[in-house]
Amino acid sequence: MLAIAMQQIADWLKRLGMSEYTQRFSENDIALDILPELTDQDLEKLGVSLGHRRRMLKAIRELGNPALATPRTETAASPDPHLGAERRQLTVMFCDLVGSTALSTRLDPEDLREIISAYHQRCAQLITKHGGFIARYLGDSVLA
Question: What percent of the chain has pLDDT over 70?
Answer without folding.
Answer: 84
